[in-house]
Design brief:
alpha/beta; 8-stranded parallel sheet
Length: 262
């Protein structure tokens, strides 16, 4: 069993993407033996009203039963946009999302903005994880119209400290995967799951030792990144780093428990 914790449909305005629809993602999933995937819609980053992107994702998933069987939807909510509370309610009650993706850098707010904290608390009360993508694309070769700053893992610590009983899914850790002792304890004591797509996880064995095997899950960040690397980081672990049974935690068990999948 394999569950990918990090895929997206939709468009990226600065370059043409392949495999950015449910049909094309399924082609990649089938090729690499992936059973299910957590999916969001990139369009929610760039639409002024992210709700439209959630409606698009819901419509696509409803169009075929195999999409509903294979994909686990996450909505996008911008907490500084009017009516975000209604967007959250609609995402849960109508679209059946299993989590919420937040994009503070693109939507231009601080994670500790009062509305942001309120959104995280509401998701906590609904038992919904908050997904934070530390990097969508490498800023260096990206467009001059794109944002010019990326997050490191340490940038997520303030909101985890603020709402320590919320669930956080941290995606594409491309910078700064190693924290000081105090911040490491924050990650270890909170309900945090990190996907394996980011380049900063190249030494996954060492990170498992630092944070624990219950803190990681397989993810690809497709279609921005290739479908192999996130999986190779799991499968290439040596026996002394993770047994085959322990690799199952990363392949699907941790994310299944995190999302209450049956």
């Amino acid at each position: 069993m394999l569950i990918d914790a990090n895929v997206s449909i939709g468009h990226w305005p600065f370059r043409k993407l392949q495999y950015n629809s449910c049909d094309m993602l399924l082609e990649r999933m089938d090729r690499f033996g992936v059973d299910r995937a957590v999916v969001g819609n990139f369009n929610g980053i760039f639409y002024k009203d992210a709700e439209a992107a959630n409606a698009e994702l819901f419509k696509e998933l409803q169009s075929k039963k195999k999409y509903r069987d294979k994909f686990i939807p996450f909505g996008v909510v911008n907490p500084i946009f009017n009516g975000w509370q209604d967007d959250l309610t609609r995402s849960v009650q109508k679209y059946g999302v299993k989590g919420i993706r937040m994009y503070p850098k693109y939507h231009r707010y601080d994670l500790l903005h009062p509305a942001s904290v309120e959104l995280v608390k509401r998701c906590r009360d609904l038992d919904l994880p908050i997904a934070l993508t530390l990097r969508i694309v490498d800023r260096r070769p990206s467009s001059w119209l794109d944002i010019d700053k990326e997050w490191a893992l340490a940038d997520t610590i303030p909101i985890i400290r603020e709402v320590p009983d919320a669930k956080f899914l941290i995606l594409n850790i491309a910078n700064g995967a190693y924290l000081n002792e105090a911040d490491t304890e924050v990650i270890k004591s909170a309900n945090v799951l990190m996907d394996t797509s980011g380049r900063a996880l190249s030494n996954l064995g060492r990170l498992l030792e630092q944070y624990g095997k219950d803190k990681f899950t397989f993810g690809t960040h497709a279609p921005i990144l290739d479908y192999c690397t996130g999986l190779l980081r799991v499968e290439a672990l040596r026996e002394n780093e993770a047994t085959d049974k322990e690799k199952n935690l990363l392949r699907y068990e941790n994310i299944s428990k995190f999302l209450n999948l049956t």
